[in-house]
Amino acid sequence: MHSIGVLGGTFDPIHNGHIRLALEVRNKLKLDTIKLIPANIPPHRSTPLASANDRKKMVELAILDQENLSIDLREIENKNISYTVNTLISLRVEFPNDALFLIVGEDVFNMIDTWKDWQSILNYTHIIVATRLEENKKNISDELKVWRKKNEINDIKILKMTQSGHVFYINTPIVEISSRMIREYYSQNKIIDEYLPSNIISYIKENNLYMDN
């Protein structure tokens, strides 16, 4: 049984925080691979400013030298609204015998009960919640609290022995970066070198992205 991490996002643009999160989870859980999946049309966010092709190219640049990180284009290629549950169903069909690990930040997990068919997600994957210890498990609805209590485990060995079904919190340094912040900084001619790989900065400049942000 292989272990496959799943990290979705608009990646508009992908930044060091995304890469750091993927690498931290991969290393701590010893996952075989992590798939970065750019959204086509995100259901809970505004339409990305960069085209799907530009966001695809930036993800490819970001993972050039990263072992065991790969890009998965199924959401872009289906050209529909990118509901996570549909993506997970597709992954489960493709990888019926492997373990899936959906990686989300705690802020995202705390809103997961607004997602399409959210209570079915654990039928297809584990959910790995990246958090800081001091922020753990705050600001959550009563319904989600009950669901989490039913499915949360703390034993990494059990997690790695099963294909899906568990919520697992992992203490991971969260880099205080957002794609929106980067776009705003760039449009204001502020320096963004510390937030992005240099090859992505070059791509943004060469393709005139985000100047009208």
Overview of this protein structure:
It is globular, with a radius of gyration of 17 Å. The mean pLDDT is 92. The protein has a single domain, classed as HUPs (Rossmann fold). It is α/β, with parallel strands linked by helices. A 6-stranded parallel sheet has the order 3-2-1-4-5-6, sandwiched between helices. The protein is built from 9 helices and 6 strands, in the order E-H-E-H-E-H-H-E-H-E-H-H-E-H-H.
Summarize the structure.
With 213 residues, the protein is of the alpha/beta class. Helix content is 37%, strand content 16%. The chain has helices spanning 16-29, 52-62, 74-78, 84-94, 106-109, 142-151, 156-161, 179-187, 198-206, and strands at residues 3-9, 33-38, 69-71, 99-105, 126-131, 167-171.
Provide tags for this entry:
single chain; 213 residues; alpha/beta; Rossmann fold; 6-stranded parallel beta sheet; 9 helices; 37% helix; globular
SSE-based structural type: alpha/beta
Proportion of residues in extended strands: 15-25%
Q: State Rg.
A: 17 Å
Q: Mind telling me the CATH class? A: Alpha Beta
Helices and strands, with pairings:
Elements: E1 3-9, H1 16-29, E2 33-38, H2 52-62, E3 69-71, H3 74-78, H4 84-94, E4 99-105, H5 106-109, E5 126-131, H6 142-151, H7 156-161, E6 167-171, H8 179-187, H9 198-206
Parallel strand pairs: 1-2, 1-4, 2-3, 4-5, 5-6
